[in-house]
Amino acid sequence: MKPNIPVRAICCLLLGLSAVWLTACEKRPSAPAEGEKVVIPEADALKPTPAIPPSADSAPADNATVTTQAIAPAPPPAAQPGANMSASEEQPHKLKIPPFAQQAATGNAFRLRFLATGESFYTEIKLENGILSYTYFEDTDNRCAQWLQSAPCWRDSDLKTISMALKDEDLDNLYSVVKDSGVLKLSREAYGGARQGQRYYAQRLEVGIDGKRKTVVYQHFPGAAQKPEAFARLETALVEYARDLPH
Q1: What's the CATH fold of domain 100-243?
Q2: What are the φ/ψ torsions at residue 227 (nearest 5 degrees)?
Q3: Average pLDDT, integer, range 136-164
């Protein structure tokens, strides 16, 4: 005997199955929960490419930290030829000045003397043992204003002397002046061109350096030949130091 199922019940069952099938096909993804990160493909594509892109088979997982490779610093520029040259190599012409103790050694003493005398003047500048002495005549009472004699108007008792020990750098400077000036290379003992018996004022320069001795005389008179540059340079240096001595 066949069961008697009402047609209406069958129709309701079919309609229910159809609704379930349609709901499964048209199911949409649910909205993201509040606070959940949403990845937007367009914005994701704008991210800069990492320094070392991961390979296809070793792509990092979500939320994994990607470590980029540090860029090694560029090597320092190659040294230019001569950049590390010492001061002596850069200035081969620079004088090698011995220490004062060596300059003052026996037989190697550094001595200088300039002497100029006349009826109304006396000037002597002497350097010896590191001490600079300046001896001069100062006509304070106008004794020599109307002096007509060929003998000096001054006496030894009228002369004044001031002295001071020079610093090592000042001694080195005078040493350099002597070496650079070329006074040791002067070929004659006298300059100026005075004739035999002609009257002139003698300016005397004496040099003792590195065991060498040199004496040069310049004859000063109207129309005299020009003073050698080496002589004038050393004379000027000594005069400038003498002027700076405390009076």
Answers
A1: Mago nashi protein (3.30.1560)
A2: -65, 140
A3: 93
Interacting residues of 119 by C-beta distance below 8 A, sequence separation 6+: 144, 147, 149, 150, 151, 152, 153
Convert the pLDDT of each residue in 70-124 to its tens digit: 445 555 555 554 444 444 444 444 445 555 445 544 456 899 999 999 999 999 9
Contact 27, 19 (CB under 8 A): no
Sheet containing 131-137: give its strands across. Answer: 159-165, 131-137, 122-128, 111-117, 201-209, 212-220, 190-191
- Closest to 119 measured CA to CA, from 87, 155, 152, 156: 152
pLDDT tens, residue by residue, 175-221: 999 999 999 999 999 999 999 999 999 999 999 999 999 999 999 99
Total residues belonging to the chain: 247
For the full predicted model, state whether its pTM sits above 0.70: no
Q: Which residues of 13-52 are buried (b: 16+ CB within 10 A; e: fewer)?
A: eeeeeeeeeeeeeeeeeeeeeeeeeeeeeeeeeeeeeeee
